[in-house]
Amino acid sequence: MTGRARPTADDAHSDVCVVGGGPAGLTLALLMLRSGARVTLVERSRSLERAYRGEILQPGGQALLDALGVLKGARHRGCHDHDGFRLEERGRVLINGDYRRLPGPYNCLLSLPQQHLLTDLLERCRAHSRFTCLTGTKVNGLVVEGGVVRGVVCGGGSDGLVVRADCVVGADGRYSAVRRLAGIPYDRIDLFDQDVLWCRLTAPATRTVRIFRAGGNPVLAYTSFPDCVQLGWTLPHKGYQTLAERGFGHVKASIQAAVPEYADAVGQQVRSFKDVSLLDVFAGSARRWAGDGLLLIGDSAHTHSPIGAQGINLAVQDAVAAHPVLCEGLRRRDLSGRTLSGVAARRRPETELATRVQVMQSRMMLSTGRVSAVVRPKAAMLVSRTPVYRSLLRRIAYGDQALRIRADLFQEGEPETL
Ligand SMILES: Cc1cc2nc3c(=O)[nH]c(=O)nc-3n(C[C@H](O)[C@H](O)[C@H](O)COP(=O)(O)OP(=O)(O)OC[C@H]3O[C@@H](n4cnc5c(N)ncnc54)[C@H](O)[C@@H]3O)c2cc1C
Fold it and tell me: In order along the chain (418 residues), what is the average pLDDT of each group of 10 residues?
């Protein structure tokens, strides 16, 4: 057993212990609860507030969440529909990724605060009597017996809580503790030339996710609920420290130069380092997603760049793919690494494809330098008119279209308290 606490007879026992209440963990928790499993969720944060997290939800994720019955409620809490994304260079549109041309009904990019999605998912989980929710509780150890993961150790000190489970699911994000505690190697790949510095501004709404270049570094911008624009200013990968050493005034002036139309708003609203948040952009992948009694899904299994808004989609799709594998494993009492690796067999090719597409998008949209400044506009305009690009756009929007929620595994309708 890793960690300091020892299991006792009174420890909670679940079929599945999900570590991490993000999109992957909560989607899986709800799917398993609806299939009659006893689920314990362990989430280190006390609240569902997630500033500077993924908000843009692709059509594929929207469709699955709608089939699960959570999209309407999450939307109702507040969101913005975007018609698609646009790559712009000094006011000229190079690529118009128009989602209205995709098959409906989810043909938009949805800007939905993660908190709204997570709140709806959690409320639905809470309506199930077999759900135990431990928020404000951090996993810092695994219970391992005879090489098989049997649970997690939470909190610190000798009185740390132990949750025993037939299967532990690590859905605890890009810096996954479960992955580390299980000794699963993770290949971090610095494929991208940029990091992103995020800030939020009160500014008029737009209906397009924009990637634009107006003089300085490229910028990502989209309208975020309630009435904000979320700006992602790109800077050279690992270059923030050097930049910050020149002082906040310099950082602010660099952002202002890159966003002339928002320069005044940045001047008034971005007042100190506290108003910006750095995202270290990298891709990464766990060498194994499964072990005996253990499964990794979402960012803990594979991490992506924010470009192309793939993370939430992939996280939700992982949960949907893991659901039948876990149900079958529980039924047969076989939650071996061999059984659970069925999830990776289905999902790994998808996630690798997403990374390859992101690298391409990043080179096409964010590259800097004199040669690319000349080549990029022509290449972008040319590529965006080809059938290959149109099929790529569908792929970016929907991901694995064959993936369906296995409602036949649900034991009941939603509890009446909803
Ligand atoms: C700034 C930013 C912008 C992004 N923009 C987009 C976007 O627009 N669209 C998109 O699709 N994706 C975007 N992404 C990526 C997206 O947010 C992630 O891919 C997605 O949230 C992954 O979901 P997840 O459930 O796997 O992990 P997470 O959302 O990271 O959730 C992991 C959860 O585990 C909890 N946790 C961590 N450690 C422990 C522990 N030891 N014990 C208990 N709990 C723990 C965390 O508190 C967290 O709630 C963005 C990411 C960032 C950082």
Answer: 43 90 98 97 88 85 97 96 91 88 94 96 96 95 97 77 97 97 94 89 90 88 92 92 94 94 95 94 94 98 91 97 98 98 97 90 70 64 74 90 96 62
| Domain end position, chosen among 224, 254, 279 | 279
Contact status, residue 166 vs residue 293, Cβ threshold 8 Å: yes
What residues have CB less than 8 Å from 87, skipping those under 6 apart?
93, 94, 95, 97, 211, 212, 364, 365, 380
Residues with CB under 6 Å of ligand 1 are 19-25, 42-45, 52-56, 138-139, 171-173, 177, 198, 279, 298-299, 306, 309-313, 315
Q: What is the CATH number of the domain that holds 143?
A: 3.50.50.60
Ligand 1, closest atom to CA 52? 1
Residue 93 lies in a domain: no
Structure pTM? Answer: 0.93
Range of the domain at 139: 12-78+114-190+282-372
Query: How many whole angstroms from its chain centre is CA 82?
Result: 19
Nearest CA to ligand 1 atom 31: 22
Omega before 204 cis (within 30°)? no
Residues 217 and 121 in one domain: no
Which one-letter DSSP state was computed for residue 133? E
Which atom in ligand 1 lies closest to the alpha carbon of residue 139?
Answer: 42
Same domain for 335 and 228, yes or no, is no
Instruction: For residues 290 and 364, state if they share a domain.
Output: yes
33 and 49 share one domain: yes
